[in-house]
Amino acid sequence: MNIVVTVKQVPDTWAEKKLDPSDMTTDRATVDNVLNEMDEYGVEEALLLKEAHGGEVTAVTMGPDKAVEAVRKALQMGADKGVHLCDASLHGSDALQTASALAKVIAPLNPDVVIVASEASDARGGVVGALLAEYLGLPQLTLARKVTADPGGGTVTIERQTDNGYATVLGKLPVVVGVIEKINEPRYPSFKGIMAAKKKPLVTMTAADAGIDPGSAGLSGAHSEVDEAQPRPPKAAGQVVKDEGDGGAKLAAFLADQKLV
Amino acid sequence: MAEVLVLVEHADGEPKKVTAELLTLARRFGEPSAVFLGGPGTYAKAKDFLARYGAQKVYVAESADIDGYVVAPKAEVLAGLFGSAAPAALLVAATAEGREVAARAAAKTGSGLVWDVVDVAPGLVVTQQVFGGSTIVRSHVTKGTPVITVRPNSAAPEEAPATPEEQQVDVAVSDAAKTAQVSDRVVEGKSGRPDLTEASIVVSGGRGLGAAENFRLVEELADLMGGAVGASRAATDAGWYPHQAQVGQTGKTVSPQLYVAVGISGAIQHRAGMQTSKTIVAINKDPEAPIFELADFGIVGDLFNVVPQLTEELRKRQ
User: Fold this and answer.
1) What are phi and psi of B305, to 5 degrees?
2) In terms of pTM, does the model score above 0.80?
């Protein structure tokens, strides 16, 4: 199977995330950046599919120069090839533009399965999987907690997580699969994997290479505009008391006092 | 006034509370038109509710295709309404599926998408609380029809009885939208509790509970208060509680009136999913636990003493 998995570099979970006041985009310069944790589940699922059915895994990202580190991490985990869409004109792209640009990079790779994690920890939109299905014109098998591929029958079946359980959803190849965490246990790159990754093919593409219309790309072509951003005002300190055997009663009194019960 | 489309969030026709919140928000800047998308015969259960919360019009699209395929048919019907109704905006609940439907409707119509909004002001300026609630952003859509997903519990629902005009929508779903086929829907662990993201009270358990069976304490407290049960990532990772209940960065974002954190330290991943709750109370044995920085009221103590006592006290007060 020809498998493509999307990855994204994001500010580290522990970093204090903020917007760059000059253009209101996510500040990626003053923080440590890592592979989006959820993407590790996507890469793992891609590798599991490859191990079960053969084929090749290509990790694709879009982002500034150093975002290539996210692809490298995927290669270290075991992906075979990497593609990095990198172009200053793409800076400030919204989710629609990003998914549209990724679709332009992915389509010529002729994948059987495109794997996307359910969301990135910085923007938390959770829409790129659905949007890739839209732009690529492929079945949307997102919010998957279990994926079963049948390459012989030409189908993929997932368990799509719902609020109160799951739905079984089937699509004919090629498909877009969106995975939630808990679907698997992502592997750590081995020393061998880290060494091997250095020799794996990694292509850098410009917007023009991908056929992206420069007029529609980046901040100037975005579909929305940030007017202002402010830090949330600090919360007034609450009351913290040590349990002296009456903690539960005190808490009940507080809740009653606040008319919450 | 222009129409504002509100996608009805429902379970087999039963509208969710967030639908009333969306209709209430929509009235601020236009005439709310509810859009009901569901399987055949499901609309009847939503009719009175939509009238009570002020829908001036209801677009009814009932079809087996709506439920039979993932997301795409819904997005197609909505995109069609953008053309025929020329609405000022589309409001959708920011649920896992809601955000996907909204995104595809926006893509089909070249419209801007803003998500997880907590307030909509005149001029369609939206407020979002991003980066786990640490930054407040105001923004507006610049292209097409603004598509806005709204976080549940962002507005207090207000009744505004109306007699909506009903308009049947012809659901002619294209073959292209019928590619991800639903063959089966399975309900797991039906609890009778409110939805986690909609509940006005959430009681969550974490690592401090120590074992799956101790979630009983959390459930008992939640049931007494009519709340939903949440869990920290540590608890779901340990397999003590289902992933659907996870609150935090890789789980659900909740914003209830009251959030009760039981044995949860309050790591940044967890705070990202609950720190905009109106009132936060915490029970933890570690006085240094970061959850206490957020708590309006905190008890430093053994949850196995404090929680049963709290439950007992609340029971007495009922």
Assistant:
1) -95, -45
2) yes
Mean pLDDT computed over every residue of chain A: 95
Q: Is the pLDDT of residue B190 over 90?
A: no
> Taking each helix axis from N to C terminus, what angle separates B96-109 and A95-106, rounded to the nearest 10 degrees?
80
| Substitution target from A232, A244, A259 for chain B, most B beta carbons within 10 A | A232
Set of chain B residues whose Cβ sits within 8 Å of the Cβ of A121: 249-250
CB-CB under 8 Å, A122 with B268:
no
Best residue of B198, B313, B317 to probe chain A, by most A CBs closer than 10 Å = B313
B198-245 confidence digits (pLDDT tens):
999 999 999 999 999 999 999 999 999 999 999 999 999 999 999 889
Q: Quickly list DSSP for B281-308.
A: EEEES-TT-THHHH-SEEEES-HHHHHH
The interface predicted TM-score (ipTM) is 0.95
- Is the CB of residue A232 less than 8 Å away from at least one CB of chain B? yes
Cα separations in angstroms, A238 against A241, B66, B313: 10, 48, 22
Q: Are A3 and A69 in contact (CB under 8 A)?
A: no
Q: In chain B, which residues have their Cβ closer than 8 Å to the Cβ of A215?
A: none
